[in-house]
Amino acid sequence: MTTASAAPLTRGHKKKERTRRLLLDTALDVLAADGEGFTVADIATRAGVSHGTFYNYFADRDALVDALVPELVESFAARSALEVDDADPAARFAIITALGLANAVRNPEIVRVMLRLEAAQRALLGGTGFAHLRQDLADGYAAGRFDGPPDDGTLDVVIGALVLAARRIVDGQHSANYRRTVVSRLLRSLGVDAGEAAVLAKRAVGAAR
Asked: How far, CA to CA in Å, does 175 sit from each of 12, 33, 91, 104?
């Protein structure tokens, strides 16, 4: 039996997707510049569309924000995890962490929005954006690479440190040395020897440039 292929997008569908993307990108710009105190009118005016056009895509301002949150969280955390395949849990943790921090250097406006948007911070601190992290910590513990099981306290320490480091980076602390320090300290907090932590951090940050 032959499986029918997906129908190609029509010109109308492509235009709708472009308009939706325009509204999301405009919201990112407005959030980065002004924070959460924006209105539907602000977004529509900045995007050059009518209020009616906005409501064709999003029920209200909150619906637009809800659509942004998964993108922001993925750009900071989840996407990095998908890029890494390393058998050593400690090396994997170092590389994923370094990639997340490098993303803050490359895309400060995106991370700045994430840090200013309460819903995105809740998603990060609640573990949604770091779904891979608990498993990585569990794998490291099972392999004898990390001390202690991946409890909520450990997750809070790691995620909190990453969020604060991202804030410092978008505020101008771009140096590779700073990022190496963050990765190394996190590895040491998990039980990795200081010397090895420094080596893993240096390698990971160098690869994440």
From this structure: 46, 24, 21, 12
